[in-house]
Automatic annotation (TrEMBL), chain A:
This is Ferrous iron transport protein A. Residues 11-91 form the Ferrous iron transporter FeoA-like domain. GO terms for molecular function: transition metal ion binding. Keywords: Iron. It comes from the Bacteria. It comes from Bradyrhizobium zhengyangense. Transmembrane segments: none annotated. Pfam families: FeoA.
UniProtKB/TrEMBL annotation, chain B:
Signal peptide: none annotated. This is Ferrous iron transport protein B. It comes from Bradyrhizobium zhengyangense. InterPro entries: Fe2_transport_prot_B_C, FeoB_GTPase, G_FEOB_dom, Gate_dom, GTP-bd, P-loop_NTPase. SUPFAM superfamilies: P-loop containing nucleoside triphosphate hydrolases (SSF52540). Keywords: Membrane, Transmembrane, Transmembrane helix. Residues 5-173 form the FeoB-type G domain. The chain crosses the membrane at residues 227-248, 283-307, 327-349, 361-389, 401-425, 460-479, 560-585, 592-614. It holds the Pfam family FeoB_C. The keyword rRNA processing does not apply.
Amino acid sequence: MTDTHDMRREMPLGLAQRGYTGVIQHLAAKEAGSALSDIELESRLIELGFVEGARVEVLHEGLVGRDPIAVRVDNITIAVRRREAMAIIVA
Amino acid sequence: MELPLLHLALVGTPNSGKTSLFNALTGSRQKVANYPGVTVERKEGFFVTPLGRQVSIVDLPGTYSLRGRSPDEEITRDFVLGKASGEIVPDLVLCVADSTNLRLTIRLLLELKRTGRPLVLVLNMFDIANRRGISVDVDRLAKELGVPVVTSIAVRKGGTADLLKLTDEISAKLAAEPQPNNWRALSVSELRATQREADRIISDCVSLPARPDTLTARIDAIVLHPVGGLIVLALILFVMFQAVFAWAQPLMELLQSGFDALGEFVHATLPAGLLQSFLQNGVISGVGSVIVFLPQIIIIFLFILLLEDFGYMARAAFLMDRIMGGAGLHGRAFIPLLSSFACAIPGIMATRVIDNKRDRLTTILIAPLMTCSARIPVYTLIISAFIPATDVLGFINLQGLVMFGLYAAGITSALAVSFLIKFFMLRDYAPAPFMLELPDYKVPRLKSIAIGIFTRAKMFLQRAGTTIFSMMVLIWFLASFPQPPAGSTEPAIDFSLAAIIGKAIEPLLAPVGFNWQIAVALIPGMAAREVAVAALGTVYAIEGGKEAAEQIGQVLATKWSLATALSMLAWYIFAPQCASTLAVIRRETGSWGWMAATFTYMLVLAYAASLLTYNAAVALGAG
């Protein structure tokens, strides 16, 4: 990716605003506070294509609490709640 | 020598076009049932290959992996592994991929390879991929994956020819010795490694488009806009409501008059007696009172299937997720609950789109609280008899206001019950996180939708029909036996078991202001709520039944107090007065227990609401 990505600070995707673009650095299921177990959450995220190196873009936000978010992951769009997106560390 | 039936299984991720491929291969030669012990739909179809081989194909529930995290996904896993009870191990597994989006399917395919089952990768929607400038090196992909790869365009005539040809070739040389099954649940690191392997293969064999799908992005800019999206959703719902109530009405009236005419014909043809009464009142009017809902069911499913096929359903869930989440409901519960305003039966059937068991159960339990169209005749009758048509604040019609209040009470109580279920009963059950693919928009395939509606309608008629039929026979029996003594001038129903039961439960209903005639009317009203109107007519010995609804209203106005009328309205917001809904709940949850739970909680609510309403009204001087 471009140089700017390397210089950006890592942050959870769950805090990203609409229009944010970045690259997945790693998954941190423990941080998310999801009702799912860490392993289950991580497995599901990988199954939906959230793996290290994937390009993400926050396309849309819901009305209440800007939640959930619609995220472009490479060439598919996935809707997730911000709570689960906290497990996806991007930069 | 006749070759044995070849068994195929269709596996793929959700939105891979699996079902449209299934429809393209089998047409209407489909059989829908449930897997034993679970409420997962089992769809099997049949076709013949160009070389004349008879093939049975099972459309397995969509899944992203073989981990089996829901009953549906467990079925897919067990079926492929040959562990599903009563199922034959498939001879060949077809793994279906959306050609525009291969990442997730290739990973699934790599996982499937470990099972040792003979595999084919079907690149579906290949035309859309080509149009978007995605080019796939099919031969190289087959070599890298080590499985045959075939392209298909399920929606086009002849679009499955290559697949059919390949099926013949493969079936001719299916390995005599089966491959060993090396599959076990993948650990997180294996899963990640598999996805990386899939991504490597894709980058070697697929060149991605210069032009992404801008159409989907443009539609989503409006449809998923936080405010605009909700307005679009409201508009779609408005049209859907109009369709369900207005378009279905003429057809429903036609069906109703058809059944009435048939009943009259039987009445005129057969000599008066038990057989005549059984056929006219038990079979024809009973089963007829349920079949009249068929147009509404077809229209609702037309909308649901169209929106699902187009790709909108996932968006509606996205928009409503947080709004409904406050009451403990999943975003996907929105459409089933909405359908329940027409009738809880298609609503409960539509809960199949909710993949999480807990969320689905909550939705099923509260669906009957949505004011269904069968309550409308009862509401209209009582409101027009007791509520004056005066204006409130100069422009709001009081009758309309009461009607709105009844709807609002239904919705509010549904949300409250859902909240309580979440809070007390299913607390330890991990709530499903909302993680959903928003597929690219696609033009709905009319043939596929027609087949979908046809199978749903058939299922409604067949299965709900048999249960309802037996209920109707029972109710007719209660209302007809024992027969009145010869020369009796009172209504025959006075001598029946129904009247005996009505009088027996009258003391229980007296605190809510119901007399024994209401108690009797509630019994046939069990079959379908609006039957209570006709039953009240019968009980008050008025000629004409349903047609004389106006007349019944006048009689009620003289026989009931306002408090009784209001109590009756409150009762009908909650009353579990619909045997067919209960039958569908039993079938969809696979449990008599949940059916009983629904019946009990609604009965308790109905009684409490009526008790409160009646006593408040009496205290205010309306007794």
